[in-house]
Amino acid sequence: MKYIDEFRDGALARQIAARISAEADPLHSYRFMEFCGGHTHAISRYGVLDLLPPNLRMIHGPGCPVCVLPIGRLDMAIDLALRQPITLCTYGDTLRVPASEGASLLKAKARGADIRMVYSAADALELARQQPEREVVFFAIGFETTTPPTALVLDQAERTGLRNFSVMCNHVLTPPAIRAILDGAHADEGATAEIEGFVGPAHVSIVIGSEPYARFARDYRKPVVIAGFEPLDVLQAILMLVRQVNQGRAEVENEFTRAVTPTGNLRAQALMEQVFELRPSFEWRGLGSLAHSALQIRPRYSAYDAEQRYGLQYRSVADNKACECGAILRGVKEPRECKIFGTVCTPENPIGSCMVSSEGACAAHYTYGRFRDIPIVAAVPTQADEVPA
Amino acid sequence: MLVERLSDDQGLIDLGGIRKSVSLALVPEAVVGDYVIVHVGHAIGLLDPEEAQHTLAIFAELERSADNTDAAVARGRLVPAP
C-alpha cells in the first residue's frame, strides 16, 4: 500500500540501524521509552530490537488503552450490563480485560448480559437508532485518538435528541501520563529516572499536535521525537534521539511530518473541548490516581452520561498480586521478569491487562519476542540424521 | 486513499484494494484522492505527500552515505511475522 510499504523497507532499515550503531557511544547506556502501544507492537512485530546495539534499550510505555484501564471501571460496566436491561457496546479488546474475581465483559456476555463488540463509536449510536425501545451504553476507552469519535456521537445524540443512548467515559490523556512517569521516577527507586527520551505517539499527535510535548523537553530536559507507526519511522526516531543525547540537546522533534503538525487537528480538539471537561482524578492501572489526567462528560451532556444516568459509583480494586502489569506500565520491569508471564498468563487466558491487546507489552513480547529469551544452540548433525540420497 | 465522498461526513476509502466507509467528520477538508489516516472508523488526519517524500528522501540520503562496514554491523530481520 502506498505510504506504508516504503516505510517497511528491510534494506533501508538495516542502513538506519547501522547508522544508530555507528553514532551510539559504546560507553553510554541509552534508555528510551516508546510511550505508545502502537510503537510497542511495531518494535516487536518487525524485530526492531534485533537491529539495535546492545547498549540501547527500549522501554515500553503505558500508551495502550486497555492496559491502563483499572479493574474498578470494568467492574462498573460489568455490573451495569448484568443488572440493567441495556445493551453495552465497546471495542473488541476491552471485552477480554480482566476485572474482579476473574470476570470480564466477555464472561458477563456468556452469563447473559447484552454486550456487543463495535468497531466504532458511530456503530453504537447507529444501534441505538435501530432499537429505540432499548437503552444503549457505549463503554468508551482510549487516548486522544478515540476521544474525538466519542465526542462526535455525544454531539450527534444531543442534536438529534436521541434518548436511549449514553456513554460511560473512560478517556484518558497522554501528556499527564508522561508527566506521571517522569515524576514517578523517585517512587520507583530511580528506575524510571534513567529514561533519557521518548518516542512520541503517532496517532495521538495527529490530534493534539507536537506542541504539548514542549514542556517535557523544557522542564524535564527529555528529548521527544514523534514517530510514525512503521518500522523505518521508529528506527529513524531512535537515531534522532541518539543524536539529541549525544549532543546534549532536549528538543521536540517530529519524524512523522507527513501527518503531524505543531497544532494538530483543531476540529477534533474543538469537539473534545465542547463535549468533555477534565476529570478531577482518574485511577490508571499501574500509575495510580492522577489528577486531571482523564476526561468526563460536560454537564450540558449529562443526560448522555451513563455514570449519571445509572448512578454508577467507582470503587478502586487492587490488581492480582502475582501480576506485574503495574511495574511494566511504568517501565520499571520487563514482561519476562513477571513470574506468571507465559505460564499462567497468556493471550488466551490473560491475568493482567498488558497481555490482552496486541499493543500490550506482554502480549507483544509473547507473540513476537519470547523466543529471543531462549538461547539458541545449533544441533550437531549425527550420522543418524543424514538421509541417504 | 479517499475514492468517493458518500455524504456530508462519510467517505469511501480504498485500503490496498479493500473498500470501506469511514467518517470524515473530523477532516471535513478531505477531497477525493487524499490519503487519510483512519482510527476506529474515523479519518483523524490527512497525509501530506510532500512531507512523506521528504522523509523518504532523508532515508535515501542515509543509504547513499552508508558504507559497507556500517551495513555489516546491522543484522536481523525485518519481515512482518504472519
UniProtKB/TrEMBL annotation, chain A:
<dbReference type="GO" id="GO:0051604">
    <property type="term" value="P:protein maturation"/>
</dbReference>
<dbReference type="InterPro" id="IPR042244">
    <property type="entry name" value="HypD_2_sf"/>
</dbReference>
<dbReference type="Pfam" id="PF01924">
    <property type="entry name" value="HypD"/>
</dbReference>
<protein>
    <recommendedName>
        <fullName>Hydrogenase maturation factor</fullName>
    </recommendedName>
</protein>
<dbReference type="InterPro" id="IPR002780">
    <property type="entry name" value="Hyd_form_HypD"/>
</dbReference>
<dbReference type="GO" id="GO:0005506">
    <property type="term" value="F:iron ion binding"/>
</dbReference>
<comment type="similarity">
    <text>Belongs to the HypD family.</text>
</comment>
<keyword id="KW-0408">Iron</keyword>
<keyword id="KW-0479">Metal-binding</keyword>
<dbReference type="InterPro" id="IPR042243">
    <property type="entry name" value="HypD_1"/>
</dbReference>
<dbReference type="GO" id="GO:0070025">
    <property type="term" value="F:carbon monoxide binding"/>
</dbReference>
<dbReference type="GO" id="GO:0051539">
    <property type="term" value="F:4 iron, 4 sulfur cluster binding"/>
</dbReference>
